Amino acid sequence: MSDTSPVVRLRIPGTSLPEEGGLPPESNVWVVGDEESAIVVDAAHDHEAIARGLGDRELMAIVCTHGDADHVGAAAALADLTGTPVLLHPADGRLWEQVHPDREPDAPLLHGEVLVAGGIELRILHTPGHTPGGVCLYAPELGAVFTGDTLLADGPGATARFFSDLPTLAASVRDHLAVLPGETAVHPGRGESATVAEATARLDSWTAGGF
Ligand SMILES: [Fe+2]
């Protein structure tokens, strides 16, 4: 029987890429809702594993924190399996196209929008920097924010690619995440969870080469 807690973490292993050498990458998929219905935050790697994690709950939406392949790879298959819409910020459309050239997302995900999953409100925060269309989902009543690769347990997500930008990422975190209560749980797209206070402790050093 699947876990019907308000927040469930599914750790979904990916396939190892030769250029990465090491362990197969693992992404976090977050299921948020109640025992009746839920949303999936990111649909990584394996739609069948995600469907098993949902159990009998009705899936209301597949919400993409950003368009990277290791977070949207199973989104189209999960959408087809469940008849559920995929939501993505339009600024990550080109990343999505690289993974799913024959299928567009179903609806744009925009800053200020509020989604409801099993009675739980999730506020969309546009937080570019890791990717242009990165978003976080803040659930005040859960005291939690789902951050994708924008904010990891120990600091910012990667900003080495041409469309990434560390100062932009730092500004997004400063403006939208560091202002949340310090004890707010940060549930990232990879790795362990932390609090906002822990994950942003070195924020001032980010743009000074701290990461
Ligand atoms: Fe990413």
From TrEMBL:
GO MF term list: hydrolase activity
Record bears the keyword Hydrolase: yes
Assigned keywords, A-Z: Hydrolase
Domain of life of the native organism: Bacteria
Region of interest (Disordered), residue spans: 1-25
Metallo-beta-lactamase domain ranges (all copies): 26-190
Pfam families xrefs: Lactamase_B
PANTHER family the record matches: HYDROXYACYLGLUTATHIONE HYDROLASE GLOC, METALLO-BETA-LACTAMASE DOMAIN-CONTAINING PROTEIN
Protein name: Glyoxylase-like metal-dependent hydrolase (Beta-lactamase superfamily II)
Organism, as annotated: Nocardiopsis algeriensis
